[in-house]
Design brief:
The complex is a heterodimer.
Chain A: H1 4-22, E1 47-51, H2 67-71, E2 77-81, E3 86-87, E4 93-94, E5 97-103, H3 112-116, E6 122-124, E7 140-141, H4 143-146, E8 147-149, H5 150-156, H6 158-183
Parallel strand pairs in A: 1-8
Antiparallel strand pairs in A: 1-6, 2-5, 3-4, 5-7
Chain B: E1 12-17, E2 29-35, E3 38-45, H1 53-59, H2 66-70, H3 77-92, H4 98-126, H5 132-152, E4 161-162, E5 165-166, H6 174-196, H7 200-206, H8 214-219, H9 225-229, H10 236-239, H11 260-281, E6 305-313, E7 316-324, E8 332-336, H12 338-343, H13 346-350, H14 355-365, H15 369-373
Antiparallel strand pairs in B: 1-2, 2-3, 4-5, 6-7, 7-8
Helix pairs in contact in B: 3-4, 4-5, 4-11, 4-14, 5-6, 6-11, 11-14
Classes of the chains: A alpha+beta, B alpha+beta.
Chain lengths: 205, 374
């Protein structure tokens, strides 16, 4: 019969329309700014720099090795190395970034900086609410805007952050053991044992 | 060679469809010469989205090009990653662990599902069924994109494959979620077929329109669903059996007429075959590493040589050709984009048809301008 296919199709739209009152699986719209979907743990938006403890300058894990700057495909990272050294996350004296800028208008969220970082210093944020009316300055994030605490990292990527903390704790124990061994012959050259005060939450160190 | 049409004659009208025409799904222009309603000449103009992908890749490291491949065919980034990873693996002779092969098949076939679902939605949208079919298709696509986000971190720019494997393993509960999506997908297909496959208006608009003959499909190097709709039995998953496709039983649907309707239906049938592959692949995924343990993420320098690898992307044969001179970046990097090559027959399909048919024909070719222009 001519028109049968059309009627069948209309029956289908009717089923979807009335079904949207009955079942959750047909009504999938989320009223965005008021309602939000739960954050997916693996999600990524733009990179940030992790620091331990409460002081973002002192606890910054980044040692300005500039690997991410070299490997970044769109070259959106700018790092300038410091002149002096400070103890890093595992207690070794290291350089730190005097300047660390990421231009997130260039960044393509590919996560390669995170993968190449040997110090677990740079991680992906999940914050997508970043619009600004300042095209240039507002999208060029400096060291202070990029620095986020380890607690924040635990909040957004709990599984990943726990593995990172476990690895860092192991590394710290190794450094501390080596330091005590070295300290016996020459007690003068003893590096600071723990760089940071005990942070709240997270893994025990 | 241009057909002998004198456009100065008064009865011909030359119009420019695009570059902002909604049916082109991007920035693509067609210079159409019309005799009344009928097309007498059609010249595609593209390049509006040219991003210099191939040249940029020559100055990037091998890994650095991986996120750029996401942006080729931005609807199916995972298959783009796969083709590029296969080319580099062929170049450097890297083995892929078993588990990674399974992950590749699963994510690749999920990509095919969401690409075909959204293509059908777009095609019907172009033909004037405003909104409803597209929204139904996008509702299903959304579930697959959520899976991608949970696995890779991004919905569309997944950047998932690595040379010798995949970047991350499945998080806890991901496989169950994926199984649920796959088991619910056939219901969507059934409903969708109810909705429009038997629709008389759709049949009028698509059957016998834009017929691509088998001979032309072969001689113009058309690949993918478009060639199979014309009856060319050519599926690289069967021909090359790259990855571990030889372990799964699936069939290659073929069309008989090569018209828009066949191209539309072939996508339905392919989705059903993809579901078969997914069901087989998700049954027993072996444990093990997901990336070749010998691979280092930095300092990758393949030996001098060249390699070409291709896969059956949802749009057709996607190939990457690489020449290495032993340095950290490729000497030459070339993409064989299925969208661009399938687009070359557009004029042949459109000659003598109405303007409204041009929109349907273009929609059935399944182009993504990110890949056409590169």
């Amino acid at each position: 019969m001519l028109g049968e296919g059309i009627l069948k199709g209309l029956a289908e739209t009717a089923r979807n329309f009335f079904g949207s009152y009955a079942g959750k699986n047909r009504l999938t719209t989320v009223q965005y700014p008021e309602q939000r979907l739960p954050q997916i743990e693996a999600a990524r938006s733009f990179p940030f720099l992790v620091y331990d403890g409460s002081d973002s300058e002192q606890g910054m894990r980044c040692v300005a090795c500039q690997i991410c700057e070299k490997e970044c495909p769109p070259k959106c990272i700018l790092i300038k190395k410091s002149a002096d050294k400070k103890p890093d996350a595992v207690g070794k004296p290291q350089f730190y970034p005097a300047v660390f800028d990421i231009d997130i208008s260039v960044c393509m969220s590919c996560q390669i900086c995170v993968e190449v970082c040997p110090f677990d210093a740079i991680k992906m944020d999940v914050d997508y609410d970043l619009p600004t009316d300042d095209r240039f300055g507002g999208l060029l994030l400096d060291k202070h805007k990029l620095a986020k605490s380890n607690e924040y990292y635990h909040q957004i990527h709990p599984t990943e952050a726990s593995t990172v903390d476990a690895a860092l704790a192991e590394e710290r124990a190794k450094v501390a053991a080596k330091a005590t061994k070295d300290a016996k012959p020459a007690a003068v050259a003893k590096p600071a044992p723990e760089p940071q005060p005990q942070p709240v939450g997270g893994e025990s160190r | 060679m241009e057909p002998p049409v004198d456009t100065d004659q008064e009865q011909f009208l030359e119009i420019s469809m695009g570059p902002q025409h909604p049916s082109t799904h991007g920035v693509f222009r067609m210079n159409v010469v019309l005799d009344g309603e009928h097309v007498v000449r059609l010249k595609p103009v593209f390049g509006y989205l040219h991003r210099n992908h191939e040249k940029i890749a020559e100055s990037e490291t091998y890994l650095g090009s991986m996120p750029y491949t996401d942006r080729l065919d931005y609807l199916c980034s995972i298959t783009n990653n796969w083709a590029y990873a296969l080319a580099v693996e062929a170049l450097a002779g890297i083995q892929v662990p078993e588990r990674a092969e399974y992950l590749r098949i699963i994510t690749g076939e999920l990509t095919r599902l969401q690409n075909h679902a959204s293509l059908i939605g777009f095609l019907l949208q172009d033909m004037g069924s405003s909104g409803t079919p597209l929204m139904y298709a996008f509702r299903e696509r959304e579930k697959i994109l959520d899976l991608f986000e949970a696995l890779t971190g991004a919905r569309m720019m997944c950047n998932y494959m690595r040379f010798g494997g995949c970047r991350v393993d499945m998080p806890a509960g991901w496989l169950d979620q994926a199984k649920k999506v796959v088991s619910e997908f056939p219901r969507f297909l059934d409903e969708y077929e109810q909705l429009l496959v038997g629709n008389e208006i759709l049949m009028e608009r698509t059957q016998g329109i834009g017929v691509l003959s088998r001979e032309l499909a072969v001689s113009a190097a058309i690949s993918g669903p478009m060639a199979r709709a014309s009856g060319v039995n050519y599926d690289i998953r069967k021909v090359d059996r790259y990855g571990i496709y030889d372990r799964f039983s699936f069939r290659v649907p073929l069309g008989a007429h090569g018209d828009v309707y066949d191209r539309y239906m072939i996508r339905f049938l392919e989705m059903r075959e993809s579901l078969k592959i997914l069901n087989q692949a998700m049954k027993d995924i072996p444990a093990g590493p997901i990336v070749d343990p010998k691979m280092r993420i930095r300092g990758f320098r393949p030996k001098p040589g060249e390699a070409y690898a291709r896969i059956e992307s949802p749009k057709g044969e996607l190939g990457f050709y690489l020449i290495s001179d032993g340095s950290p970046n490729p000497y030459r990097y070339r993409v064989r984009p299925p969208s661009l090559i399938n687009l070359t027959v557009l004029e042949d399909l459109c000659l003598g048809r109405n303007v409204a048919d041009v929109v349907a024909i273009l929609g059935s070719i399944d182009i993504v301008l990110g890949e056409v222009d590169r």
